[in-house]
């Protein structure tokens, strides 16, 4: 046990192993690679892939890949912008039920259910599907919906405005309607996928004999 | 602050917050092997606490309205997420894992509400 050679445990060597192998080229080389990477991805067919593009970097976890983090940040900025615009347009009076954030969170939970169920049924989480999940799901819908505002409004209603009933109603309604919206979203996402798949294969829906699937929807 | 600039900063902060959520969630996932979405729970509880503190500070004049908008609605709004929390609760329930579903849904809600209230009190005391 203790007789193993110490080479692999040296911190410097294991850290170097995780890095890309172009140490001589420095910063400009990195920039070149980033540009080439974009062109390369654009030239590839449908499943042009984050994984393919990142392959030279080894098996770095997705949440540490600059392109994945960038997609999430881009989507998050857009989603946050829409939420804030809506929240500023329809503010809630002190002591009132926060209708705008409630609606935003419910819509977000529903759409995320549709999106993730649809993408999950289309195929494995890679390439364009993963990019769509990160940009639209983790980014846009994650930024659009908010848990912190929901909770701070709830605490404010209970503590500052002494509107405990409104606070409890807001919390319970958000939790229950949110889960129901997710369930509906998942059901719709699954249905959209099935419809698209049948159209692609020209296969009739179960129970459908005379009507075509195209006309029924 | 110029309203257009403030709004741009809110969006930018939201992007940073969302990226932070992605990295934190990934880091938790890589260390947590159980099928319970601990990452989202920690993110939502910590974000609720921080937004509570920012709001408490703003209510007592220690933080400007513009800064509350950028750091609160932007950064913490982008960092925390309701959609993922709801979907994860639904998925646990759909797998008939009722205990974890209740812990994720109602449990997070109660803990995060207390975290936000604690933040409000601390922020007001600053």
TrEMBL record, chain A:
Main location class: membrane
Source organism superkingdom: Bacteria
Subcellular location: Cell membrane
Catalyzed reaction equations: fluoride(in) = fluoride(out)
Activity regulation statement: Na(+) is not transported, but it plays an essential structural role and its presence is essential for fluoride channel function.
GO MF terms held by the record: fluoride channel activity; metal ion binding
Biased composition (Basic and acidic residues): 22-33
Compositional bias segments (type: Low complexity): 1-21
Region feature (Disordered): 1-33
GO-annotated biological processes: cellular detoxification of fluoride
Membrane protein topology class: Multi-pass membrane protein
Residue ranges of coiled coil: none
Keywords, sorted A to Z: Cell membrane, Ion channel, Ion transport, Membrane, Metal-binding, Sodium, Transmembrane, Transmembrane helix, Transport
Alphabetical list of Pfam families matching this protein: CRCB
TM stretches of this protein: 96-119, 131-150, 162-189
Cross-referenced InterPro entries: FluC
Binding locations of Na(+): 142, 145
A GO term from the CC aspect: plasma membrane
Family, per entry: Belongs to the fluoride channel Fluc/FEX (TC 1.A.43) family.
Function (record text): Fluoride-specific ion channel. Important for reducing fluoride concentration in the cell, thus reducing its toxicity.
Protein name as annotated: Fluoride-specific ion channel FluC
Organism of this sequence: Frondihabitans australicus
From TrEMBL, chain B:
GO annotation, cellular component aspect: plasma membrane
Listed transmembrane segments: 34-54, 66-85, 105-125
Catalytic activity of the protein: fluoride(in) = fluoride(out)
Binding site for Na(+): 77, 80
Keywords noted in UniProt: Cell membrane, Ion channel, Ion transport, Membrane, Metal-binding, Sodium, Transmembrane, Transmembrane helix, Transport
Role of this protein: Fluoride-specific ion channel. Important for reducing fluoride concentration in the cell, thus reducing its toxicity.
PANTHER family per record: FLUORIDE EXPORT PROTEIN 1-RELATED (PTHR28259:SF1)
Name of this protein: Fluoride-specific ion channel FluC
Protein's organism: Frondihabitans australicus
